[in-house]
Amino acid sequence: MPATDGQNSVQKWRASRGWLPWTLHKVYLLPLAGLFLFMLGVIELLREYSKRMGGIVHWAYEEDLPTATWGAYTYLPLIFALLAINLLDVCAQDVLRLEPYFQLAKPGGAPATVLFNNYCCNAFTASIIAFRNRHWVVLCVAPVSLIFRMFLPSLLAGLVILDDGSWVERKIVNTWPTIIDLEIQQLWLAAGSSGEGPMGSPELNSFFMPDPADYATPPTSLPDDQNESSLLTLNQTIYWSNMTCVSNTRRGLSPQTETNLTLTSQLPHGQQIWSWNVGNMSMGNLPGGNSSSRCQISTALDTVIGSDQQTLQAKFWEPMGYDGKLLAPSAFTYEDCSAFKVFGVIVDMQLAAGNVSDSNVTVLACSPTYQQAWASVTLNPNASIADVDMTPSTVKSLDTADFYVDGIHDLIASRYLTSESDVRFGNTTQLNVSASSGDPVIVATDSTILNYEEYVQEIRQYWNSDFIVTIDRFFSPGGFPTPVEASQQSFVIILTVASKAATLAEAILALGLCMIATLIYMYRRRSNFLQWDPGSIAAQCTIVAQLFKPSTKVMFSEAKLDMATTRQLRQWANGKWCEWVDEDGEEKLQVVDRSEASLAPPHPPPRRRDPMPHFLRPIWFLLECLLFAAILALFGVSLSYIRLKNINSLFSTGATVAMIFLNFGPTAIASIIGSFLVSIYRNLSSMEPWIRLQDGMASARQSVVENYGIQTPFIPLFIRRHRRSGILLTLSIVCLGDLVLRILSGGLFTPQLKNYLSPSSDLISMYNSSAMVNNVNQSDIQMTLVATGRLLNNVSFLQWASTDGKFFMVPFSIHNTSEDDQDEDDDYTVYSATTRGFGADLDCKVLPAASSDTSLAWNYKIAQAGVTKTCTVDIPLTEDLASRSGKSIHYYAPNGTDNSCQESSIFVLAFWDLRNITDINEAGTTALHCEPKIHIQDFHVEVDSSGMVQDQRPISGSSISSGSLFHNASAILADFNQVLAGQPRNFSSHHFNFSRPHGHRRHHQHDWPGRLTANAYDMTFPDDFMLKSEHLMLSVQTVYQTVFSTHLALWKDKFLERLPTHSAQTAHGNLLDSLWGFIPSTSLVVIIICLLAIDAVALMAVFAFRFNRYRGPRVPRSIGSLIPWVVQSRMLADLGDTWEMSEREREGYLLEKDCKYKVGDFSAVGGPRWALDYDYDDQRSDPGIELQDRGPVE
């Protein structure tokens, strides 16, 4: 029953809130709730951002994923999880250890078994015991703490995952829709019909259109962050040709057998020539054409017939010129057919016994049309067209103001006559039959049968493909670009939030918030008699001395419970009740018996005692040591497997098992070992003061004063007042190392790119890299500049050029045997080999400004073969120097006493903000003179099967700076330099015999290199508001080096000597297998092994120092376990006087008293067999009263 109000301090405790540890105050709980809210908010923010943006961050290539970034997204959530767990654990441990005291403080009392409750012993059973005892606060805290510890680290470690997904970005890309003028088109088309110039170069065909599509589009610069899956969509004008055809068919015709021995004598045995003559085939009108137009076509065609075929077909078509004239000896004659530009014939025949049993002849007439339209164009990563969404209302015929349509048609027609598509004899090597211009057209037959629509489609595709290649040359990517908006869609590597993990983590954090709210609410209202922390033995003895009624102490004394085990104590307490009674105006605790249970001590033999903790029992200790040894062995074997250099070994059974173990094992092991070490620490914390007391003569500091109730291993490391010495401090440090183990195990797998080399015989040497010949051609330079404009603007790609475009690598012939049985898209092979690279270095210097009213002039000196020569540049002030954009860069060839200046130097003049020549004095002007030098060096290159260089590394000490190769290459560079700077502008008629008015100038101005340099400057340094000489130098060097390496790459057969095919040599190369994935980090595995070894050593050290050190019947982990040992103790009365003292005051009092304490057998002096008291060997304790002379404290 409650006591009446009084002045005694014991009476006042119900009116006060009592003592609470700081971990149960708002000052701790509210920041902890803030941490949980912060984590919950960040998780939700990341999830919503990831959902909205398609990921948190992304990379175009897997190998671009930085290990540090992945580690940050893995380790930071895990660190926060462990921080939250340990901060919550400090609070939870205080709740669990103090719960018995709050149960005793209830006004109605509590069962006596509460005296022996210890919820800190086992986290898994605490919830079950609390539910059985109906201790709801423990039931609220223990499961939540367990859930945090078991699930939160793994959930947050896997919160951010790696995935692939579609990433869409808005881009601003450069296009070059400007078409070269009609005059240049006429020159190029005329030269192309003769197989010369940019239109007649087979070397450029593969460069410009490696993957012909159905449409031609302006060149577009591709973003630098593209990968192999990127699709770039933008609006452009598209160009294409169409073919509209009509036909007429005659059936049942019989051919004539050719008897001309000149034609038949060279036929293989059993073959013959049949002549088909069909006259006056009327062609219908084209759709939308003139209805009065009539076209009649006759054809005479000879076909070669084999001896064993049954069903044959002969096919032939030929174009006319745009003027309506046939361009070669023809199989057709016609009347009134001006609407048609292409004629064709299909002869189908069935043979029986060597004769025609059935036949039909189809004659077709077609008219090509050239069209353009506005469309949404989607480009592949190699700049080829993936998709076109045309706007129908914008379709129109090709604009003749922009395109020389007649010349385009004639060029396509002339190309056909020299292509393999022209199947007439005399243009093919199918048979050894020669034909003269007066002979009829002879074609072969084959068993591949095409119907009319299929054959027309074949003609249409050929014509359109050649049209696209032609139109593509007319775009000028060397000039200033036109920026347009584009959309880039890529399948990229993204870091995204795992939605389920985020939901579960948020639920756990919300559960933690509910728990904190419950604690704040509950502990403000709970009865609490505590005045200080009851964690020390002295504090517990003070509670026993002041709050327990003397009759209760007598009950404990008479029960002879000093040698009872913990289980026997609980059995004794069953049926008893702790209640509050009023004794002389004070509230006291009294244990009363509410059952018929005997007050006699338990019957089990007194020699029995509580079992020692698992780590101090030999059998369990040996098993734990074996487990540590097995774990270390598994990590060691796994480490040996993941360090293998052979990719095949990486997929062996042993390596697979090692990967599985390293994937799932470390996290589980770290969690288990963490719980194991905390268990050791908590058990030792409970045992340590009793081990010291058992030895006797223990000081207060070593035993009764120290608060061993705080069983969180990290508090002694950071709070000096609770710092402990010896083995417990060491264990605290080991537990801290276990936190590192848990962190590392969560991020053991890191994104890595592993390269494995295996010898390969797929590389065949094609060229002699030790010899060069000089075949620089002026027209070749022109086409090189066209190609360079595309390379510099990231429009096209060049094989066997270095990734930075500065070197040409001597190529190999690649025969990938691994692709023979695979689809082309299913295999991407990269080779590693050593080859020679040729490039140019350019040393540039700034010249001082110079000007006059009529010209600009400079003089500078160069060193040539040890002789200093003076070079001059004199540039008239003309409007050609200005530019509409205000930025103009010009290349000039200097003058000198001989060709040395033109061969060994180049002059560059740049203007900034010069739109009118009259403003030249106000414009920013920079002049450079540059001296090129050949650079020959060997490289380790990585190249794919198509010849695209993926990476190159120069070989130290392999540069060549003397000898015949260096001399010949230097001569090539000198001629190249002279031709480059001396080119008349705009690809003039120097090669095509077309005079231009400025061809007489001493200085040879050339637009293309300057325009390329200006464009390169703008793209590289877009933020420059004034011309910077160092940036200009870099742009000039980049353009010059790229032009030279591109020139060597495009015309390699003119500079390098091909090796004979009969003596081809296999190059020394390797097949490069690259494996990207989440691979265990070797360094982390080594660190984990070291930490596990430290844990194993700590376990053995604990066993060595604490095995059989404690011999008591039990280790008191509750106040009830302590009472039987102190009810007859002399120290109890002394400690009862300290009730009104604070914890610090009691500690100072006991330390000042400097008594020694002991726990053990006091039966020799008439006391209990096991008790806690002053050590009777201590002369400073009360000598007049022995323990055996004292009864229970009244």
UniProtKB/TrEMBL annotation:
Q: Which domain of life is it from?
A: Eukaryota
- Which Pfam families did the record assign? DUF3433
Q: Where are the transmembrane segments?
A: 27-46, 67-88, 108-129, 136-162, 501-523, 619-642, 654-678, 727-749, 1084-1107
Please indicate if the UniProt record lists Glycoprotein as a keyword. Answer: no
The UniProt keywords, alphabetically, are: Membrane, Transmembrane, Transmembrane helix
Listed InterPro entries: DUF3433 (IPR021840)
UniProt keyword Transmembrane, yes or no? yes
Q: What is this protein called?
A: Uncharacterized protein
Lineage here is:
Eukaryota, Fungi, Dikarya, Ascomycota, Pezizomycotina
